[in-house]
Amino acid sequence: MAVKLRLRRMGKKKQPIYKIVAADARSPRDGRFLEAIGLYNPLTNPHTIDIKEDRALYWLGVGAQPTDTVKSLLRQKGITLKFDLMKRGFDDEKIEAELANWQKVKEASAAQKAKKQKKSRKAKAKEQEEAAKAEEVSDESSQTEKEAGVEDGAAEVKGAASEENTAEKEKTEE
Q1: What are residue 22's DSSP bridge partners?
Q2: Rounded to 5, what percent of the chain is helix, strand, coil?
Q3: Cα distance between residue 80 and residue 113, in whole Å
Q4: pLDDT in 10s for each residue of the chain, 174 residues
């Protein structure tokens, strides 16, 4: 029997909550399952993931294949990292040290991302102000250039006309 770790939809219309279940691959999405190992709520901010780690590791150990979404959820909780380290044969102390290191990196990344988002809002407002000022300056300079261009163009036209007139006068004199 092929076992899959997958999501089982629960909740109301347009308000989904998912159970993470171990189910036979042949059973329907919301049908029969072997064991519920967690919950996933995508509507909260940030989304809520609650997984029984020991049961997830058990099912992965006996060959259950997670779907892409469940694999992503397991990765976010660090369960796939722990399973990989266990498969490699590391002792419990080494695994705990690696998981603690991974957690620190993850927290630092989240803090940096939040800081960048806050900065980007301020930076966007500043950029919009600068763009508006630059647009005003460019409008003024383009108007002066157009005026200067019209004057230069008129002078060129007058110069060309005077050259043509002198050329015609010379022909008539001959």
Answers
A1: 5, 35
A2: 65, 20, 15
A3: 23
A4: 789 999 999 999 999 999 999 999 898 888 888 999 999 999 998 889 999 999 999 999 999 999 999 999 999 999 999 999 988 888 889 989 999 999 999 888 888 888 777 766 777 777 778 877 877 777 776 666 666 665 555 445 455 555 556 555 565 555
**What element of type H or E holds 40?**
strand 35-41
Distance CA 139, CA 114 (A): 37
List the chain domain ranges: 3-89
Does residue 89 contact residue 28 with C-beta atoms inside 8 Å?
A: no
Tell which residue, 52, 68, 53, 49, has the closest CA to residue 4.
Answer: 68
Helix axes 53-61, 79-88, angle to 10 degrees: 50
Distance CA 128, CA 136 (A): 12
CATH class in words for 3-89: alpha beta
